[in-house]
Amino acid sequence: MNRLVVPVVLLSSVLTQFAFAQSGLLKQWASAVVTRSSEYGADNWGAKQVLGEPNTMTYGDNGTAWASATRNGVPQSITVSFKQPVYASAVLVRETYGNGFVTKIFAIDPQGGIHQVWAGQDKTQPNYTVNFIATFPKTTYLVKAVKVVIDPNHDQNAYEEIDAIQLHGSLE
User: Fold this and answer.
1) pLDDT value at position 12?
2) Fewer C-beta neighbours within 10 Å, C or N terminus of the chain?
3) What does the alpha-carbon distance between residue 21 and residue 44 come to, in Å, rounded to a whole number?
4) What phi, psi does 47 have (nearest 5°)?
5) Mean pLDDT of all residues belonging to the chain
6) For this UniProt entry, which residues form the secretion signal (predicted)?
7) Domain ranges of the chain
8) Under a CB-based contact definition with an 8 Å cutoff, are residues 164 and 96 in contact?
9) CA pair distance 103, 65, nearest whole angstrom
10) Quick check: 80 pLDDT over 70?
11) Can you give the pLDDT at residue 43?
């Protein structure tokens, strides 16, 4: 007799997405890198490290997170897209090193228009992986991508690193 075996993690992820869709809130992890100001490496510490669910579980300098090419300097940014455009209400940035560095978040609509949706002080503390969540009034336009701007000088002794980016929103 043949059995259909579905990995628990996959089933859990599908059920979670279904539950969010049923409640009207859709949470989705970044699916593609649109652009980045720089990256420390093409593989380890590369921009592609922000795609999908978090996979950096310990605080510190980890190659499984994106880092800019230099430890300090001018503001850096990464722009990622998502599979389903939504009317956005929040962006989650999983910080794994040098926490407290997000300075601005921009929403990008399907026509390529760029809208600043958040600016302020990221008050997350170092020494722990942290999900920084920037909330804002639900956009009146669909959002297909977000640009996260960071201050690489926030912690002079660390690279500011991002493990994953998630967009929160609804289809209506």
Assistant:
1) 38
2) N
3) 33
4) -60, -35
5) 90
6) 1-21
7) 24-170
8) no
9) 18
10) yes
11) 96
pLDDT tens for 106-116 read: 999 999 999 99
pLDDT one-digit tens code per residue, 5-36? 434 333 334 434 444 444 689 999 999 999 99
Buried-state track 102-120, b at ≥16 Cβ within 10 A, e below 16: bbbbbbbbeeeeeeebbee
Asked if 51 and 108 count as a contact pair (C-beta separation under 8 A), the reply is: no
Look up tokens 């190659």; give the residue: 63
Diameter of the chain by CA atoms? 62
- Taking alpha carbons only, the member of 163, 148, 105, 97 closest to residue 125 is 97
Angle at 114 between CA 108 and CA 116, to 5 degrees: 100
Spell out a b/e string for 133-144, using b for 16 or more CB atoms within 10 Å of the CB, else e: ebebebbeebbb
Q: What is the third-level CATH fold of 24-170?
A: Jelly Rolls (2.60.120)
Q: Which helix (H) or strand (E) holds 12?
A: helix 8-22
Residue 127 region by backbone torsions, left for phi larger than 0, else alpha for psi between -120 and 50, else beta: left
Amino acid at 131: N
Q: Identify the DSSP state of 72.
A: S
